[in-house]
Amino acid sequence: MTAEILNHRQAAALPYVRAWLIAMAALVFCMVIVGGATRLTDSGLSITEWQPLLGAIPPLTEAHWLEALEKYRQIPEYQLINKGMSLEDFKFIYWWEWAHRFLGRVIGLAFFLPFAYFAVTGALTVKTALRCGVLFVLGGLQGALGWYMVASGLVDRVDVSQYRLAAHLTLATVIFGAILWVLFGLAQSRRSPSGGREWMALLLVGLIVLQVAAGGFVAGIDAGFGYNTWPLMEGALVPPGLMVAEPWWRNMFENALTVQFNHRVLAYVITVLAVAYAYVVRSGTSLILLAAIGLQVVLGIWTLLWAVPLWLGLAHQGGALVVLAAALWNLHAVLASEARAASFRTARA
Prior knowledge:
flat
């Protein structure tokens, strides 16, 4: 894949486009952290309506707060878990969910307005404009998916569906990674994976995204609040009860023991592959990736042993995005260096 050829306007705007994408990645990172806090504080069902415009305005009077609380009193979470909740306690969970939704609105505007300006003024190449257009569509889908997730907990459940929560978290992670991939590729040439090292770098990226999805299921059924020992679970490396549910596949998503066990095993697999990859490649980016994975493993074990305190749970969730960023940077470095090498060989020939 050849590098984009920039005209004078695009070359001059390049630092500003980079700064914009860095800011967007940082905002999405914050969004994931706030979303994690919303989940860990059980705040996600406190706002029972989806109002894309008017929802940006929080309750401003006592009467408005009481009206919001009354709507919350109609759903199963209040009736079965939080019955008798005071207005002050309700405000605590309301503000977390409001902040999560408000930040989503800020991200939408912070992405669209500069994107429109850059596109209209010719600051973006066609390829970059198309990629950013895809990012904007993904952001819109994420907002819709967020409400679809919340809606699953308003009628027959006291919590949101773990399937929808995992999908919501995974899509946020994909958007974060896609922003970084566009950022890294600005005015750069990258080739498609061909050799074993390149495919291994890509595999690590895929496994990290899969691990985030697995973590979404852990969060979705509160699997991290049980089995708080390591390295053993229920006194064994492979605990009994992993496949007790029927049909068998439900264990992968609904059995807390199996869901947490799978999350652990996938962490071991990623770590072993990262060690082997770093040993073979011995590049700076591979070592950075290995260090990020090592730190994330430590955070994961610490979070588990301490039964998921809020600050550790958020650190672990943020650590997953740091690991993904390191994996994408490593993949970019491999593909970009291979592209430069191929170009050099072609020029010499």
